[in-house]
Specification:
This protein has a six-stranded antiparallel sheet with strand order 2-1-4-5-6-7, covered by helices on one side. The chain is of the alpha/beta class. Helix 6 packs across helix 7 (273-282). It has helices at residues 59-67, 91-97, 151-154, 172-184, 189-210, 215-250, 273-282, 284-290, 318-340, 357-370; strands at 25-34, 37-43, 49-52, 108-115, 118-126, 137-141, 144-145, 157-160, 259-264, 301-306, 311-312, 345-348, 374-378, 392-397, 400-403. Bound molecules: adenosine-5'-triphosphate (ATP) and magnesium ion.
């Protein structure tokens, strides 16, 4: 794969709807061999997008594709090879790709990101040179190779999915990823930091497992881990402090509850670089034997309380937990709007199904006053009717996107 950005043929048309200064919007999206999509293109305005349609038509797949235009494994946390469209190749599959850099038919996504300061062509796809457990994705920005961390500042995004209904009940990994995504929006360096920490951690474990590691190399890896660990923890703590202020100022009177967030940092009270380095080095034997790093921000956790109920989020009802998540995501979007003049793209999978009419109206009002390009999915388009005139309505038929009228 040479260049996923070349999937988009030509410039996009100028916006029919003027782009508010703080809006960041996808204007053109092309999916190739991505799950249920063989090859399809969607052109949309910067307004919110409602993806409506029957079960299994590809709504979540579309949001997942967009989410892969950011670091990590997307909103399903899927393995890269799982995403490849599973279908027998037909003769025509070869036809479209002849002469294109995608002749190998690996999955690829390309999009035009439009912001007040210009348009960017971004793309990502499965790399043709690493397969199976070693599968990697390649990433492009305006035709040049890039890192997915580069997209964080360009197209910040946040998502909420039905799988997150259990976010407060499951193990800490998903909560940590949720928190890190909140941090990305105001601290684009956070993605690079977490990548560097994880790379050093993996390399240290590999050395420890292989036996007889070079102590100088181990020292250097542990120093990198300690520095990155402290920076990661500080960035998470800063975001939590900002969010707590934002949530408190939103108050408890609104349609979504006030939450209070706290960080478990995973550092076991080793709060400076020297203590953390000595902690890592003291744990070499135990970590080597267990095959896991037993201290560090990769074990941190996000603790959430429902302020009015004075209860841990995990003890709240499913609907209350969902409402807390919506509160946190909206508070983060408002923070980004105020502090960086950029509103993240919101991917809200089946969100309105949980909400009563009053909360649905409150959510739509917030999305519209944020000027966010929110992508919302649902099986019943009538639930979105208050957005008529303010959002694009799209369905998927036979693997192709279709813009339809609200009537
Ligand atoms: N790798 C793949 N190759 C081909 N098809 C896939 C792949 N992965 C998933 N699918 C199929 O994609 C289809 C659409 O899935 P998706 O989750 O996007 O549906 P949906 O429109 O969100 O449905 P629902 O309303 O039930 O949530 C499903 O039928 C699923 O089996
Ligand atoms: Mg779905």
């Amino acid at each position: 794969m040479e260049n996923t950005a070349r999937l988009l043929n030509g410039a996009i048309e100028r916006p029919v709807v003027a782009l508010p200064a703080e809006t960041i919007a996808l204007r053109k999206l092309r999916l190739v061999n991505f799950r249920s999509y063989r090859d399809t293109v969607l052109d949309v305005s910067p307004r919110p997008v409602v993806l409506a349609g029957a079960n299994g038509t590809g709504k979540t797949n579309c949001l997942e594709a967009i989410s892969l235009l950011s670091p990590g494994r997307g909103l399903r946390n899927a393995k890269l090879t799982e995403i490849q469209r599973k279908a027998p190749l037909e003769p025509t599959d070869r036809g479209w790709s002849e002469g294109s850099p995608f002749g190998d038919s690996l999955w690829a996504i390309a999009a035009t990101v439009e912001r007040q300061d210009g348009s960017w062509e971004v793309g990502t796809g499965l790399s043709p040179i690493a397969f199976g457990a070693n599968a990697k994705r390649t990433t492009h920005l305006n035709g040049a190779p890039a890192q997915s961390a580069d997209f964080v500042g360009l197209a910040p995004m946040l998502w909420l999915t039905p799988a997150q209904d259990r976010l407060f009940l499951e193990a800490s990994g998903d909560r940590r990823r949720f928190l890190d995504r909140l941090v990305y929006g105001l601290d684009a360096g956070h993605a690079t930091r977490t990548n560097r920490y994880e790379r050093a951690m993996r390399e240290r474990l590999r050395l420890l497992r292989d036996g007889f590691p070079d102590p100088v190399w181990l020292d250097s890896l542990e120093t990198t881990m300690a520095c990155e660990a402290l920076a990661i923890t500080e960035a998470r703590a800063n975001m939590i402090a900002l969010l707590n202020d934002e949530l408190a100022s939103r108050g408890t009177a609104g349609s979504f509850p006030c939450a209070h967030l706290a960080l478990e940092d995973g550092l076991e009270r080793a709060n400076d670089a020297a203590s953390l380095v000595s902690k890592f080095s003291g744990l070499r034997r135990r970590d080597g034997e267990s095959g896991r790093t037993t201290v560090g921000p990769h074990l941190g956790d996000l603790c959430v309380r429902h302020t009015a109920k004075r209860a841990d989020a995990r003890d709240c009802s499913t609907g209350e937990q969902k409402a807390l998540l919506i509160s946190i995501v909206l508070a983060n979007a408002w923070l980004q709007k105020r502090r960086s003049d950029a509103v993240p793209i919101l991917l809200l999978d089946e969100i309105v199904a949980h909400l009563d009419a009053q909360r649905r109206a409150a959510l739509y009002e917030e999305i519209l006053s944020l000027h966010a390009q929110a992508w919302m999915t649902g099986t019943d388009k009538s639930l979105f009717s208050p957005l008529k005139g303010d959002a694009s309505l799209v369905t998927v038929e036979a693997g192709q996107f279709m813009q339809i009228d609200w009537s």
